[in-house]
Amino acid sequence: MSSSLKPLRWGILATGGIAETFAKDLLRDPSTRGVSDVNHVVQAAASSTSADRAKAFLKEVGAPSSAKAYGSYKELVSDPDVDIIYVATPHSHHYQNTRLCLEAGKNVLLEKSFTTNAEQAKVLVDLARQKGLFLMEAQWTRYFPLAINIRKLAAEGTLGDIKRMYADNAFGDDVEKKFDVKHRMVNPDLAGGALLDLGIYSILWIFQLLYHIQPKDKRVKPKVSSIITPEPRTGADECTTIIMQFATGAHGIATTGLRVGSDPDGKHSAGPSIKIQGTKGELQIFPPAYRPTQYRIIPNVAQNSTLEYKEVTEDIPGHGMFWEADECYRCIRDGKKESDTIPLEETLVMMEVMDEVRKQNGLVYPEAIETTDYPRDL
Ligand SMILES: NC(=O)c1ccc[n+]([C@@H]2O[C@H](COP(=O)([O-])OP(=O)(O)OC[C@H]3O[C@@H](n4cnc5c(N)ncnc54)[C@H](OP(=O)(O)O)[C@@H]3O)[C@@H](O)[C@H]2O)c1
């Protein structure tokens, strides 16, 4: 596939599971998703362990043979031919790795959760602004046509006044069997636990409707009340429930967990995992919250709603991570330093909410991954 458009030359920092999925999506022909104004190139990848690992990764994702393989992140950020770096390390490492990229003058797309705490997030945002670099949290779900459409219909008042939302993103795993105590999902040294890994999706869905589409004066940090149950072996959060009250008065109930799931049989038998409840009706989204393909609208008959019952299913031509990459392309092409769909200010408020949940429940990570000191070897 060749394109006459100026390429956006990506560097992939880390060679784990999501880096692979993202790089494969990046290499998909944009026309398969009806897009003709982007040109993504995988320029290089770096592994913290060896150049051979990076080489194997590039082969696995089908990158062109010209792509460079680096055995350290420092080499990647020094490559003058890389325009933007996708950071896909565990969240514990996001601050150090992203700071490395920004200090080297690189634009960054940073996996969720942005950092381990809001203080680190603020340092990165300030640094990107000071250096005139593009920075965005990889909240890929927001760029799905389905999510864009739901924000639009909610903003147009289709559901009436939104009074309440429930959002769940939980996996229902056999925790001890699936995750060794060193695994990033449960290991506090890697900022493990449900909140930062899965709960961010429950929070982002609620924020899209009760914060993002609201008038500016209503976009303030919500009141937060929360409970956490720790994972018995490591103390990371295993089950977390957050109640938020937004400036509109609307309530948002965000839940997440490792041991109980949003979709226990994988067949949607448990129903939707997200409910947007307005005075005219309710919009329900089926799991998984991070990669939704199906929703329905149910009228509120008690309030003589003129809404009609409707079910919508949308196909995704791939995993769906290319839409956020397309946003990066367009922002950088147009000289924008952040995305309107996930403004850095909103990322900071979501990080503050998660900080508050942790504070209310005494959940702290090791100092090495909470600090804003840089550089630190992790
Ligand atoms: N958007 C999504 O749908 C989605 C899905 C899953 C995960 N994520 C996010 O993506 C990030 C990575 O998740 P993942 O599932 O890809 O994790 P993973 O499979 O464990 O991969 C993480 C990679 O980070 C690098 N790394 C550097 N230092 C590390 C350390 N001390 N321990 C472990 N890995 C280290 C490793 O690659 P090299 O050292 O070879 O570079 C490793 O392969 C997390 O922030 C997670 O929240 C997003």
UniProtKB/TrEMBL annotation:
Catalytic activity: D-xylose + NADP(+) = D-xylono-1,5-lactone + NADPH + H(+)
Pfam families per record: GFO_IDH_MocA, GFO_IDH_MocA_C3
GO MF annotations, alphabetized: D-xylose 1-dehydrogenase (NADP+) activity; nucleotide binding
Residues annotated as domain GFO/IDH/MocA-like oxidoreductase: 150-283
Keyword Oxidoreductase: yes
Signal peptide interval: none
Domain spans labelled Gfo/Idh/MocA-like oxidoreductase N-terminal: 9-136
Keywords: Oxidoreductase
Highest taxon, organism lineage: Eukaryota
EC number, UniProt record: 1.1.1.179
SUPFAM superfamilies noted in UniProt: Glyceraldehyde-3-phosphate dehydrogenase-like, C-terminal domain, NAD(P)-binding Rossmann-fold domains
Family of the protein in this entry: Belongs to the Gfo/Idh/MocA family.
The protein's name: D-xylose 1-dehydrogenase (NADP(+), D-xylono-1,5-lactone-forming)
Originating organism: Rhizodiscina lignyota
